[in-house]
Amino acid sequence: MLLEEKVKDIIIQVTKVRPEEITNEARLVQDLGVDSFATVELVAAFEAEFDIDIPAEDAEKNDTVGKVINYIRQKVEEKIKK
């Protein structure tokens, strides 16, 4: 499964939104209803799935599905380069 698909899959599992709602432009809070508890769940799931660390301030900055995908891709690539 591609990174983008896995990220979207995790968002669907945590938020229980319909798959068609998960677009790269979808805003986590406004469009998908992600609250602070769900944000913590998402961060934990992303960290576990991709073996990365996501600081709280980074989680807050990534407010769309597309930004989350790009951020995780960057973190994974940085990890691979180390």
How would you describe what is shown here?
The protein has 82 residues and is mainly α. It has one domain (3-81): ACP-like (Non-ribosomal Peptide Synthetase Peptidyl Carrier Protein, Chain A). The protein is 62% helix and 0% strand. It is built from four helices and no strands. Helix 1 runs antiparallel to helix 2 (36-50) and helix 1 (3-15) crosses helix 4. The longest helix has 17 residues, at 65-81. The model has no long low-confidence stretch (mean pLDDT 95).
Distance N to C terminus: 23 Å
Supply the CATH superfamily name.
Answer: ACP-like
Work out the number of β strands: 0
Shape-level CATH architecture: Orthogonal Bundle
Strand content: under 5%
Q: How many helices does DSSP assign?
A: 4
CATH topology: Non-ribosomal Peptide Synthetase Peptidyl Carrier Protein, Chain A
Radius of gyration: 12 Å
Low-confidence stretches at least 5 residues in length (pLDDT < 50)?
none
Q: From the helix content, strand content and strand pairing, which structural class follows?
A: mainly alpha
- Helix and strand string, N-terminal first? HHHH
Overall helicity:
55-70%
**Any idea what the shape is?**
globular
Tally of structural domains: 1
Short description:
By secondary structure, the protein is an all-alpha fold.
List keywords for this structure.
82 residues; mainly alpha; Non-ribosomal Peptide Synthetase Peptidyl Carrier Protein, Chain A; 4 helices; 0% strand; globular
Give me the secondary-structure topology.
Layout: H1 3-15, H2 36-50, H3 56-61, H4 65-81
Helix pairs in contact: 1-2, 1-4
